[in-house]
Amino acid sequence: MPAARPHIEPRLVPTADSVVVKEIYLSVQGESSHAGLLCAFVRLTGCHLRCTYCDSEFAFHGGKRRKNEDIVAEVKALNTPTVEVTGGEPLLQPGVYPLMQGFLDAGLKVLLETSGAIDVRLVPPAVHKIVDMKTPSSGESSRNDYRNFTSMNANDELKFVIGSREDYEWSKALIAEHGLLRKPFGVLFSTVYDKLHPRQLAEWVIEDRLAVRFQLQMHKYLWDPNARGV
After folding, report:
1. Residue ranges at the known binding site for S-adenosyl-L-methionine
2. Which amino acids are annotated as binding site for Mg(2+), given as ranges?
3. Which positions bind Mg(2+) (predicted)?
4. Cα–Cα distance measured from residue 171 to residue 110, given in angstroms and rounded to the nearest whole number
């Protein structure tokens, strides 16, 4: 587990009223228990990880700093009840916390896609957090912050992206060690696209009677997996 970091309230940071945005677009949610829902996506710039299977490297740099209130207005204009904040790693930006609260105050269902390498304790409780635990094939499994297991609530989901049998066994062992299937949040398994056939993962889950939610990254089957804004 990473060493404890000093607690800094986001509202005390000068840039907490804005974030650096890479893109905002409307699509269909491709994964999690919210898959299939019409959803606005707000992708923020920057990430401190370099996962081998990253599909959003274009979000590491660039983007434009924008006021949170303007972002909320643009998302509201897209006329969808659901918004996902993603990255990169959105929790690197202090302004993301008041941004998520702004979406909630506007009456939106708010999803957060985060790496699992930052404790989510400061995220507004009403936000549906999708926490991506990094498996060994990502090259970043040592960066996982296991404090998330106690910071997550019944709104939330813990995601494992599986690229090999080693990833699967590692994930299964972590679930058993921490009693994750007894936690209030859901547990999701999906494959690294084009690295492990989804049928193989499904067969492992069935064989082991593992009570997780098997899922596909639906958007990668609907559109070009390297496409932007989908």
Report:
1. 53-55, 88
2. 56
3. 56
4. 27
Q: What is the C-alpha to C-alpha distance for residues 163 and 18, in angstroms, rounded to an integer?
A: 36
Contact 135, 163 (CB under 8 A): yes
Looking at residue 173, which CATH number applies to its domain? 3.20.20.70
Q: How far apart are CA 86 and CA 122, in angstroms?
A: 16
Check whether 208 has a pLDDT greater than 80.
yes
Q: Which pLDDT tens digit goes with each residue over 63-98?
A: 999 999 999 999 999 999 999 999 999 999 999 999
Residue 230 covered by a domain = no
pTM: 0.89
Q: How many CB atoms lie within 10 A of CB 42?
A: 26
Domain presence at residue 159? yes
**Residues forming the annotated binding site?**
28-30, 43, 47, 51, 53-56, 86, 88
Q: Is residue 6 included in any domain, yes or no?
A: no
* CA-based nearest residue to 24, from 37, 41, 44: 41
- Annotated binding residues for [4Fe-4S] cluster, written as ranges, equal 47, 51, 54
Residue 164 domain boundaries? 11-222
